[in-house]
Amino acid sequence: MYAEPLIKLAYASALAILVMAVSYLRRIEIGRDFSFAALRGFAQLMLLSIVLTYVFTSTIWHIFALPIFIAMALLAGYTSAKRVGMPKATLITTPSIAIGATTSLAAMTVLKVIPLQPKFVIPLAGMAFGNAMNICSLTLNRLLSEVRNNRSRIEAMLALGATAQQAVEQYERTSIKSALIPSIDNMRTLGIIFIPGAMTGMLMAGIDPTTAAVYQISIFFMIISSGIVAAVNATYLTKKRLFTPAHQLAEDV
Predict the structure, then answer these.
(1) Which of 188, 96, 171, 190 shows the shortest CA–CA distance to 134?
(2) To bridge 248 with a disulfide, which of 134, 150, 168, 244 should be the other Cys (CB 3.0-4.6 Å)?
(3) 104 Ramachandran zone, left/alpha/beta (phi>0; psi -120 to 50)
(4) How far apart are CA 218 and CA 112, in angstroms?
(5) Any domain includes 23
(6) Which helix (H) or strand (E) segment is 92 a member of?
(7) What is the dihedral of CA 141, 144, 147, 150, to 10 degrees?
(8) Domain membership flag for residue 152
(9) Which pLDDT belongs to residue 195?
(10) pLDDT tens readout for residues 1-18
(11) What is the mean pLDDT of the chain?
């Protein structure tokens, strides 16, 4: 049953060998990181496939889905916090990502865009949490960079009577907009430059191309909505760290 997919995986591994060979020959020095990432990704996907095989066939999949969603939120928050490099950043990233992802996913199910079935809800939850994580990381990295680079200007605005919100508002907008650019660019080029993974998978499964296209654009709406909600929440929570209750820029920024 599993022999044929494993044989195909072995053949596909030739591409991994190509990556390592180019890395070695050109001294790019990503061979070790790539190997570790590939092995870790393979192990995680195999474990996930075992779990999902059981969950998809269970009549009480809702009970199993909840801890899966919690694990996604915690891991996404932790990963995003590591990228941001701010003390106790998980207290910002985790709730922001969780709110963004669950909001968009709930809307998709309540509006019946996707069926309330585990084979739809759980994979799409992974997409929502993953993309919210990336957008949250990009937003906070850009926001902290903007604040640090414009510290004197922000302090001047505060000295002239501006509130913390007024002093940092333009940098919040810039950060969120910058973080959303890759997702918006991907949506702008759908079907022209590339066929996204979800649509590719549906086409390979024999789904009608029109139906696959409708689902794909709906997924992109979900991705961007989860990202912008996560980004707005993250900037709001971060602002409380950046400024004191007296609307002064914190010393450790």
Answers:
(1) 96
(2) 244
(3) alpha
(4) 11
(5) yes
(6) helix 90-110
(7) -60
(8) yes
(9) 72
(10) 567 777 888 888 889 899
(11) 89
**What is the residue range of 164's domain?**
61-242
Q: How confident is the model at residue 252 (pLDDT cuts 50, 70, 90)?
A: low
- Do 51 and 148 lie in a common domain? no
Contact (CB, 8 A) for 250 and 241? yes
**Phi, psi (5° rounding) for residue 249?**
-70, 130
Residues 6+ apart with CB under 8 A from 207: none
**For 243, phi and psi rounded to 5 degrees?**
-125, 150
Instruction: Confirm if 213 and 122 have CB atoms less than 8 A apart.
Output: no
Structure tokens at 64: 């199993």
Average pLDDT of 27-51? 88
**Rounded-to-integer distance, Cα 215 and Cα 159, Å:** 51
CA angle 13, 37, 12 (to 5 degrees): 10
pLDDT in tens, 58-84: 888 888 889 999 999 999 999 999 988
Q: What is the pTM for the complete model shown?
A: 0.84
The CA distance from 97 to 39, in Å, is 27
Residue finishing a domain among 57, 88, 105? 57
How far is 11 from 8, CA to CA, in rounded Å?
5
